[in-house]
Amino acid sequence: MIFFAKLHPLIVHFPVALLTSGVVFEIYGSLKKDEVVETAGRFNTRLGFGCIFPVLIVGFLGMLSLDNTEKFKDFLSGHMRFVFLTTGVFIIAMVFSRYVRNPFGRAVYFLALIAGLVCVLNTGYYGGELVHRFGVSTTQ
Predict the structure, then answer these.
(1) CA distances for 52 relative to 13, 16, 73, 86, 104, angstroms
(2) Nearest 5°: CA angle at 89, between 136 and 86?
(3) Are the beta carbons of 122 and 82 closer than 8 angstroms?
(4) pLDDT tens by residue, the chain, 140 residues
(5) Residue 51: which of 92, 81, 22 has the closest Cα?
(6) Gap between the Cα atoms of 20 and 27, Å rounded
(7) Global confidence as pTM
(8) How do the residues of the chain divide into helix, strand and coil, expressed in percent and rounded to 5?
């Protein structure tokens, strides 16, 4: 199972990049009334959302193989907290985008995108600390 702990940091960057660029492009395109940029952002956001789930599963399987988590348990806890917040917020965004097509739904969607971006960045911070400060998944 250590394979998954080593694989997770390698594959997680793809959905992080898609979600980050997607949210930025989608909001920018909406504000500037640039439909091409907004559509590109929407595509990236949805593809990034779809990629969350395999990365989440690999990360969970990798976490099961970790030994001696006491020294970095606060960072692991923060990482897990923001993983689930990120997933939940983007689920809310996708539901509102698909099923609530009115001004209120659009407002909730964009607020969820902004909250999702904040969550993605925090998840990345804690994950980066686990790898670079504590060497999680880089040893053995």
Answers:
(1) 10, 8, 23, 9, 26
(2) 10
(3) yes
(4) 689 989 999 999 999 999 999 999 999 999 999 999 999 999 999 999 999 999 999 999 999 988 888 999 999 999 999 999 999 999 999 999 999 999 999 999 999 999 999 999 999 999 999 999 999 887 65
(5) 22
(6) 11
(7) 0.93
(8) 85, 0, 15
- Ranges of each domain in the chain: 2-132
- In degrees rounded to 5, what are phi and psi of residue 127? -65, -40
The residue behind tokens 């001696």 is 68
Among candidate residues 120, 99, 126, 104, the one with its CA nearest the CA of residue 23 = 120
Residue of 74, 86, 68 whose CA lies nearest to 136: 68
